[in-house]
């Protein structure tokens, strides 16, 4: 082989080596590109996994919220059912109460023992009143026994009634009107003094007018008793209180207590209570002791339907 041929072979070898080297560099470049692509894809995968995990977490939270809301809805429905049941029971009880109220008497039952009874009058709510057996069948409408109740009251208070039905009280003018307008009533008044003396006055046709008529004492009927007739002077007289002067003189009620006055008069059972029984502006029934200085320490006014 000539030198020329050797050189040619060497040149060809070097060119082949260069081609191989270039090809190798190109492959390395491609490998690096692939590596970068793979790395980029891995990064994208990691981000996607994080996002997926985040979405899953959010979805889990939402599912827990939905579950919690469903439980709350269930609890609310249970509560609503319980409330509806309670409402239904209360409505039934109210209906029964109304039926019971409708069956209440309009006066004290005759023959029943002493005690507090519920009474229902047309147009008024049921109320409690003491019922007496001596005499029988009477409803107590006013009581004075110890001075524990203030009887110096306004028109509205006398209209509605006040006090404690187990102690001192006034039943109310409106109730008296409703009771006595429906049918004739008897009035029985027990009286007592500080020394223990007792007496009574009875009227067989007691009737009170309406508020429009200023609760006029429209009728009394015939008197009977031991204390004397001090009330007939009040017949056809309007009721007066400290704030409503309906008599023909000065305001007698302001001085002597609320009552049916003409020009003051011989009786006033709502006057000031004097425990020692001595007071000219106290609880008065003049025809009994024939003096203004005796103030009664016990009074019970009672009514009952005349048919009893």
TrEMBL record:
Which part of the chain is the Fibrinogen C-terminal domain?
99-307
Q: Which GO terms describe its cellular component?
A: extracellular space
Q: Does the record's keyword annotation contain Glycosyltransferase? A: no
Q: Which Gene3D superfamilies match?
A: Gamma Fibrinogen, chain A, domain 1
Q: What Pfam family is a match, any one?
A: Fibrinogen_C
Is the keyword Coiled coil assigned to this protein? yes
**Keywords assigned:** Coiled coil
| Coiled-coil ranges (or none) | 24-100
Name assigned to this protein: Fibrinogen-like protein 1
Name the species this protein comes from.
Drosophila rhopaloa
Originating gene: LOC108046072
């Amino acid at each position: 082989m000539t030198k020329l041929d050797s050189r040619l072979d060497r040149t060809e070898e070097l060119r082949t080596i260069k081609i191989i080297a270039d090809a190798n560099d190109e492959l390395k470049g491609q490998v690096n590109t692939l590596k970068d692509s793979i790395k980029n894809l891995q990064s994208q995968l990691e981000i996607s996994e994080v996002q997926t995990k985040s979405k899953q977490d959010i979805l889990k939270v939402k599912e827990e919220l939905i579950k919690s809301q469903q439980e709350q809805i269930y609890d609310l429905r249970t509560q609503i059912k319980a409330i509806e049941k309670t409402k239904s029971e209360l409505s039934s009880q109210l209906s029964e109460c109304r039926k019971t109220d409708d069956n209440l008497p309009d006066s004290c039952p005759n023959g029943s023992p002493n005690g507090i009874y519920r009474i229902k009058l047309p147009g008024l709510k049921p109320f409690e009143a003491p019922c007496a057996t001596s005499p029988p069948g009477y409803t107590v409408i006013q009581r004075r026994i110890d001075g524990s109740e203030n009887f110096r009251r306004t028109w509205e208070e006398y209209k509605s009634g006040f006090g404690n039905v187990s102690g001192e009280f006034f039943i109310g003018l409106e109730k008296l009107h409703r009771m006595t307008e429906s049918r004739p009533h008897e009035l029985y008044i027990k009286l007592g003094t500080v020394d223990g003396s007792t007496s009574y006055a009875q009227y067989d046709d007691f009737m009170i007018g309406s508020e429009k008529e200023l609760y006029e004492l429209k009728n009394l009927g015939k008197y009977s008793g031991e204390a004397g007739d001090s009330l007939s002077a009040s017949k056809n007289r309007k009721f007066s209180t400290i704030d409503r002067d309906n008599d023909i003189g000065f305001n007698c009620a302001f001085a002597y207590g609320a009552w049916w006055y003409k020009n003051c008069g011989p009786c006033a059972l709502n006057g000031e209570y004097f425990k020692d029984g001595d007071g000219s502006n106290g609880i008065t029934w003049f025809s009994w002791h024939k003096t203004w200085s005796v103030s009664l320490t016990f009074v019970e006014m009672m009514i009952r339907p005349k048919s009893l």
